[in-house]
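Predict the 3D structure for this chain.
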Amino acid sequence: MANKGKAFFVLIAIAAVVFGLVYAGITLTSNLGKSDSQVNTEDAGKRLDKLYKNINVNNVEPVKGQIDLDPVAVGDSLPDISKFAVSVENTTDSFVEIFSSTEKSGTGIDGWLNEVAEAFNQSNAQVNGKPVSVKIRNIASGTATDYIRSGKYVPDAFTPSNELWGEMVKAEGISAELVSKRLVGNVTGIVTRKAKYDELVEKYGSINVKTITDAIADNELSMGYTDPFASSTGLNFLVTSLRTFDHTDLLGETAVQGFERFQANVPFIASTTIQMRDAAKTGMLDSFVLEYQTYVNAADLKSGYVFTPFGVRHDSPLYALGDLPKEKLDIIKAFADFVAQDKNQKLGTEKGFNGLEEYQSELEAVDGGTLLSAQRLWKEKKDGSKPIAAVFVADVSGSMDGEPLNRLKESLLQGQKYLGRDNSIGFVSYSSDVSINLPIAKYDTNQQSMFVGAINSLQASGGTATFDGIVVAMKLLQDEVALNPDVKPVIFVLSDGETNEGHSLKDIRGLIETYKIPVYTIGYNANIEALKSISSINEAASINADTDDVVYKIGNLLNVQM
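Done. Predicted structure below.
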């Protein structure tokens, strides 16, 4: 999927927060052992300067590296398909493999399709006199679409959350026959705090995507949604919101202008529903997107929130892929018939599916080419007129020597293709001391070359002063904000999570909170909990970048955030 700008990984799980310069009244802990105190902007600046002066900072002469101008090829970065678990194994030699979206092929309330598939495999089903079975692989709809469209791995069948992904597969010229328009009923919606919901109803008369986007554009509502490259709900929300601005041309000037005005006031974009839910729990969001099946199973949401459906239904269509032999196509059809049986639909209802049956899709069919263009539009316009200033902070301590550092380099060299040209990039590395390998500058071809050169020159040795590295990154960013007040600062820390020198998290937590800088962490053979504690301060994502899919994960993260 080189043309869609999407990236490398399933993950993630990515969460962006409101980037403000400063907020007064945040608790700040001194690195000198003083008690917590309330600080204003000026005090925070003084504290940052004091911490910075206590660090041994080296300024490294930038060196240029050879840049790769080839377009991103998603298939090259996707991990081996074995990375995604088979949730139901086939029990016969004649079988079909089905990619299934995660809300129905997981565990517990999310394991409906698995239970149905196991029942099918135990039913002695036959096709043309031969016993048959199905194999279910649990994989998110967006990632599954990447595998199918890239040709890296194409299963016999595919049941995403909604039909939008099927249209994208067809846009690549891959045969996708709709065997069943619905395996089980579901819808997606906007979940809004009851008090805010009542307030909006009083002003607008009703709640729908149009009134929601108007309220966000007027800065009356704080809402988050999920990554439209990876999330079915996020993709649905993107095209539905574009339609509210111009239903005749989703990509026309009117729609684009409306989207830019609305998107300028969206504080939060997450890669997964889990990240969205975690952010909602902090109280920072008035509204967020969620599937109804998740909503009805969340006791903490049902009493204080209102669910408003939108867009296309999420009825889990089933597609047969490619030029299949008749036997496989017959197995897929037999399985669809089995799924439709009353007992299996009743099981779905027990797990939260088949609710809001009266809701009809408010969005007309959207062809795959338009969907791909809408994703590209989102990538280009999601940050409005405010560019990002990012500093990458790389751990080059002795514990990173060998495979961890090699993977760190590989993931950055591949991921840097997703760094938007309107953004500014800096690079810092640390062991016992901290080095500024590349000062912050616009990510043009020259800066890209020096970024690559800085990555290639990294060598591991010494201790691990992670929080010193973050302090230096914050100092660089605050200096950049002073010169360019409209930029959004962000930090990416790549480390094994083990800190044994320099400042502690306690020393700098107050600064991270005060400056509201999201710190995304990427762990290599890491102490993930230590890294999560850094990212959780401002609701950023923490990635466990293991050997198989680190490139894909980081590409996805940078695609969303940069």
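Residues 1-38 have pLDDT under 50 and may be disordered.
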